[in-house]
Every structure is written in structure tokens, then in C-alpha cells.
Amino acid sequence: SLQCENIDSLSPRNQGSAIHGVSETIVGVLGGGQLGRMLCQAASQMAVKVITLDPVEYCPACSLSYQHYVGRFDDGDAVREFAQRCEVLTIEIEHVDAITLGKLEEQGVDCQPKPSTIRIIQDKYNQKVHFSHHEIPLPDFIKIDDLESVEDASNLFGFPMMLKSRRQAYDGRGNAVAYHKDEISSAVAALGGYERGLYAERWTSFTKELSVIVARGRDGSILCYPVVETIHKDSICQIVEAPADIPENIKKLSVSIAKRAVGSLEGAGVFAVELFLTHDGQVLLNEVAPRPHNSGHHTIESCYTSQYEQHLRAVIGLTLGDTSMKTPAAIMYNILGEDEGEKGFYLAHQLMKRALSVPGASIHWYGKPEMRKLRKMGHITIVGPSRKNVKKCFNLMLNREDVECS
Ligand code: ATP
Ligand code: MG
Ligand code: MG
Questions:
Q1: What's this model's pTM, rounded to 2 decimal places?
Q2: What SS3 class is residue 11?
Q3: Is the CB of 211 under 6 A from ligand 1?
Q4: N vs C: which end of the chain shows fewer Cβ within 10 Å?
Q5: Upstream peptide bond of 113 is cis (omega within 30 degrees of 0)
């Protein structure tokens, strides 16, 4: 039984069993969302034991993890207790208690990637400062403390201007755009005011958004997945096309920036590097996620080694797997909540049923207990012999003609 009242252990399975797969290492994952769930799916194939910590009892990972612990991953006591149950600690979300992780590391707990990396990344302003010190190309940015500094930023950057929350950001929920001077105060208010900790970014009118998943093993070996294009709707990733339809030199540039960015951070695991491709062929870094990422879901069906298996291999210290695509093309579509409650479930299920008759389509449903508008509820990946083919199948699934076939 557990000492700490901040954490509860649920559904232990195979306890005491000596049977283990490719590694005896028990991997502890902070967070039990869809990324945690897909880590568990990869782990089950290798018979690797993954345990999860999430405040939600019926979170997406709960039924697939070896043991699920209910507790907050931003609560030091819960994280400390959880760390005793595993041999290596990793994350599926960066909004964890990184200070406690740092202390645990000093006491000999194995955290991958390193707590120092999570600390840099979880504050998006600090992340930008870090990458600018490493001469990684970025959109211009400036810290915002008060009305004066936000007005200075707007004089410098013009409009539209992107305001971002430094912490707790995901799915664009920490972003607000001011299109005009009059909108500054409402944008600041929408993010929770200056006290929330904000910064401003120069608007980047990109032609495409790109992403590179980079894997680093414990021995320092680095492998990159093919560059993909991510298409966002209202700041939320909706479609991923793999490989990205961009010239070879842009691919090379993207991979080299991604490798340099990850090279400036410590620890093993997979990292996602989000990039902007500008009109004049520049590639700028948007942000890095120190974990598996939405832009790598497609790797489950389209690559020899999925990003989830790769992350486990990396943090355990196994050889990294082949990152190349085994299908010429893939397209991933996020199933975002279209409506609250039953109506939303109905629409999502209709889409999944249509996907069943689409060649090359695989359905992933995360089993989230509640449906909310724009919430990531699942995804569908379509693989096929060419970009044109997967787009055709994609349009068939969505009953629409408007995604152009190149
Ligand atoms: P994620 O879910 O990827 O963690 P997030 O909430 O951290 O997202 P960002 O990645 O900073 O948010 O921004 C979300 C999206 O908003 C970007 O993918 C891009 O479409 C748009 N965006 C962000 N920064 C800028 C910018 N400076 N100029 C123009 N568009 C931007
Ligand atoms: Mg982010
Ligand atoms: Mg992002």
C-alpha cells in the first residue's frame, strides 16, 4: 500500500509476474492522455511495463497501462511517490512539476528527458530565450509585463501581433491575436492578464507549418523522422501530411534546425520540433515538445518504428529503430469535438464509421470520458501508395471535394 495520500494505485495487473519482454525496466509516464495511451500500446507489443500518473481515473491511458496511479503530475509528493514505482521516469506532457523532478534526479532518479530540458520547455518564453542563445532561427519575441511593454511590442512588431501565455499552453489555448491596437487589452485579458506571465511574438505569415520528430537514444545517437506538414485550424493541429510536399533543400534545412534544437537540450526520448516555412524560404522554429507529438501519430502506421516505440526504446536505452516510412504517403486527421455531449459523440462516430470503408484508414479513439468542442477525441490515419491516393481517400472519408489533390 502507498504512503502518500496524494496518489492512488489502480488496476494492478500481472503483479508479481516474472514474465517480461524486451526489457525489465518499468517505465513511469507522467500523464495519461492520448500520448500516454499510445505509449502503452507500443509497450504492450514489446511486453514492456508502463505505469502512468494522471489526476483522472478514467483517462485514456488507464485501461492500457500496467498500473495506473491517480494523482497530479504537477504535485511534488505524488510525483515523488510515483517515481519509487518505476526505474525510469518520462513524460507525455510537459506541464509537470519539473522542480521536483530536478530534486529527484539529484537523488538518483532516472528522468528522461532531463528535468533541465522540461524546465526550459515548459516556459515558452524561456524556451525562446534558450534557442536564441543557441542561434536557432525564431520569430522575434519579447517579454510582456505591463501595458507599456505590450505597446512597445506592438510598435516593434506591428499587427497582427501574437500574444502567448508563457506556461500551461496547449492546442493554442495560451494564444491570443491582436489585429489592431484596440484589441491589445482584450487579447491580454483573454490570456488571464499580465500576472499570468505573457510574451509577444512577431506574426509569421508562413506558407506552411512543418514538424520534425527527432529521437535521441541514451548513447546520444540521433535519428530524425521525415519532415511532415501540419495544418492547423484555430491554432489546433487538424491535419498532418507525411512526407511534407516541400523541396529537398527545405527538408534538409528543417532537419538541420531540428537536430540543432534538440542538440541544445539534454536527455533521451523523442522530441517534436514545430517549424514555420516563410514566403522567402526561411525556416523558423515555433516550439519544441520534449515527448511524442500529434505530428508523429502517423508513424504508427506509416513508419518502421512508431514514435511511441521509439520513445520507449530511447528512455529505456535500447537501440533506436528505423525512422523511415514504409508507405509512400500518409495523412492524419484529428477527430476534434464538433459539439458538446451526445451530439459530438454521434458526429465523431459517424466519421469513424465512414473511415471503416476507406482503404488504408486506421481509427484511433482515445476513450476520453467527456466530449468537448475542439477537444482531441481521436484520430484517423490513412496510408497509401501516393500523396494523391491518400488525399483522394481522405476526401472520400470526409465526403468533400475541397482538399486539392496534387
Ligand atoms: P501546441 O498544441 O502545439 O502545444 P501551443 O498552444 O503551444 O500549441 P503554439 O504552437 O505556440 O501553441 O501556436 C499554435 C499555432 O498558432 C501554431 O501552430 C501556428 O498555427 C499559430 N502561431 C503560433 N505562433 C505564431 C506566430 N508567431 N505567427 C503566426 N502564427 C502563429
Ligand atoms: Mg505547445
Ligand atoms: Mg505548438
A1: 0.96
A2: coil
A3: no
A4: N
A5: yes
Ligand 1 atom closest to 172 (CA)? 6
**Cα–Cα distance, 78 to 65 (Å, whole number):** 18
Q: Is the CB of 253 under 6 A from ligand 1?
A: no
CB 312 within 8 A of CB 292: no
Nearest alpha carbon to residue 172 among 234, 92, 231, 127 = 234
- Write down the pLDDT at residue 2: 45
Task: Return d(Cα 226, Cα 182) in angstroms, integer.
Answer: 42
Residues 325, 301: Cα–Cα separation, whole Å: 9
Nearest listed ligand to the Cα of residue 235? 1
pLDDT band at 8 (very low <50, low <70, confident <90, very high): confident
In terms of Cα–Cα distance, which of 144, 27, 35 is closest to 95?
35
Q: pLDDT digits over 256-271, tens only?
A: 999 999 999 999 999 9
Q: How many residues does the chain have?
A: 406
**Using a 6 Å cutoff on CB, does residue 160 contact ligand 1?**
no
DSSP 325: B
Q: Quick one: DSSP state of residue 305?
A: S
How far is 286 from 295, CA to CA, in rounded Å? 14
Indicate whether residue 174 lines ligand 1 (CB < 6 A). yes
- For 312-351, what is each residue's pLDDT tens digit? 999 999 999 999 999 999 999 999 999 999 999 999 999 9
Could you say which ligand is closest to the alpha carbon of residue 161?
Answer: 1
As a whole number of angstroms, the distance between CA 202 and CA 140 comes to: 5
CA angle 143, 122, 269 (to 5 degrees): 140
Of 286, 291, 334, the residue with max ligand 1 atoms within 8 A of its CB, to mutate for a pocket test, comes to 286
